[in-house]
Structure formats: structure tokens, C-alpha cells
């Protein structure tokens, strides 16, 4: 919901950093580093090291924004880079909640985790297939003047909201059942929004 408004601010902040970082590191190496940091965040959550997990999660998000900025600043954008970035993100969105849930695997948390992961699976299918249709119709990211590899339909839960919620997971681990269930419901509402938009526009 907030990504569109924050994108220009993020690009303005990252651009001067990206120009310098791009002299030493490729976008792909930053994506892989972000993935490794995210895996460590999941492991920290599993071990109950919530402060460390939060710091690693925030570092992952910073690196996740940097790889695309470096690619654009150095002219090294690629479809494979965009694919890898998305795959890493989806992997971390899966294993971090699993790691946190396994720290205290009682039935309420496991049921809430199943609800959350199921909602994400449904939304990912809606989001990615809708993006693919728009690309096939030549109304995707490139035609819209967007900097992402594919057009990302706007929703209630986007990148900024995910950062907030996952941070809350680490800050309030005793509230995971509520937080998982709330985020899952908002993710399903986002999928429903995509469905309504598709019904009206496709």
C-alpha cells in the first residue's frame, strides 16, 4: 500500500550509495548476501535470539533495496537478477515465520503459521499470474515506466507493510498467533483485491 509513495524516496536515498557500492560489488552478489543474512535471521528467530534476528532482518531489507539500485546505477539490470531477487524474497518470507514458530511450536502458533503460509501461497499465485498476463499484453512494468522487472499490482500488503509486520514478529514473539493471523487476513484481502481488479480489467 505504501510502496508506490515510498519508491522515489528510496531511490533518492540509495542512488549515491549504489554508485559507490557498484564499483566493488555486483547486484547478484548483493542479492545473495541479502539472502544469506535473511537465512541467519530465520535461524536467530528459531534460537530465540529476537534482537539479533530483528537486526539481521532489517539488514536484509536494506540489502534487498540496494541490489536493484546498484543494477540500475551501473547498467547491470537483468531478468535473471529480477527473478533471483524475487525468489530470495519469497524464500525468506517463508522460512523466517517458520523459524520463529519452531521456537515455540504449540498448536495455536502452528495453526496460525499454516493460515499465514496458505494465504501467502494464494496471494503469490494471484500476484505472479496477474503480472505475467500484464507482461504478455504489453502493459507491464516497462510500458508503465516502472523500474522493477515485472509490474507489481498494488495491494493492501506490499513490501513496506511486510517489513513492519516481520519486524513486529521479532519484537513481540509472544503475539505471533495474533500477528500471523492478522497478516494472513490482510494478505488474503490483497489477493481478493487482485481478483476484483482482474475481473474488471482483463
Bin the helical content: over 70%
Envelope shape:
globular
Mean pLDDT: 88
Strand content: under 5%
The CATH architecture comes to: Up-down Bundle
CATH superfamily: CDP-alcohol phosphotransferase transmembrane (TM) domain
Quote the CATH topology: Four Helix Bundle (Hemerythrin (Met), subunit A)
- Low-confidence parts: none
Query: Total number of β-strand segments?
Result: 0
Radius of gyration of CA atoms, rounded to a whole number: 17 Å
Q: Give, in order, the helices and strands.
A: HHHHHHH
Q: What does this protein structure show overall?
A:
The protein is an all-alpha fold and 202 residues long. The protein has one domain (3-201): Up-down Bundle (Four Helix Bundle (Hemerythrin (Met), subunit A)). 78% of the residues lie in helices and 0% in strands. It is built from seven helices and no strands. The model has no long low-confidence stretch (mean pLDDT 88).
Amino acid at each position: 500500500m505504501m510502496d508506490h509513495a515510498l519508491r522515489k524516496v528510496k531511490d533518492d536515498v540509495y542512488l549515491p550509495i549504489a554508485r559507490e557500492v557498484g564499483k566493488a560489488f555486483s547486484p547478484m552478489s548483493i542479492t545473495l548476501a541479502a539472502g544469506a543474512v535473511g537465512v541467519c535471521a530465520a535461524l536467530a528467530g528459531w534460537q530465540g535470539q529476537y534482537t539479533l534476528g530483528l537486526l539481521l532482518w532489517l539488514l536484509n531489507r536494506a540489502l534487498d533495496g540496494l541490489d536493484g539500485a546498484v543494477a540500475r546505477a551501473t547498467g547491470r539490470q537483468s531478468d535473471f537478477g529480477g527473478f533471483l531477487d524475487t525468489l530470495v524474497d519469497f524464500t525468506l518470507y517463508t522460512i523466517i515465520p517458520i523459524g520463529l514458530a519452531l521456537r515455540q511450536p504449540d498448536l495455536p502458533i502452528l495453526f496460525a503459521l499454516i493460515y499465514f503460509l496458505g494465504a501467502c501461497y494464494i496471494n503469490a499465485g494471484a500476484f505472479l499470474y496477474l503480472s505475467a498476463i500484464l507482461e504478455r499484453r504489453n502493459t507491464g512494468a516497462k510500458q508503465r515506466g516502472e523500474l522493477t522487472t515485472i509490474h507489481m499490482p498494488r495491494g493492501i500488503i506490499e513490501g513496506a507493510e511486510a517489513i513492519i509486520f516481520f519486524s513486529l514478529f521479532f519484537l513481540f514473539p509472544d503475539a505471533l498467533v495474533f500477528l500471523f493471523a492478522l497478516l494472513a487476513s490482510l494478505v488474503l484481502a490483497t489477493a481478493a483485491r487482485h481478483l476484483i481488479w482482474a475481473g474488471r480489467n482483463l
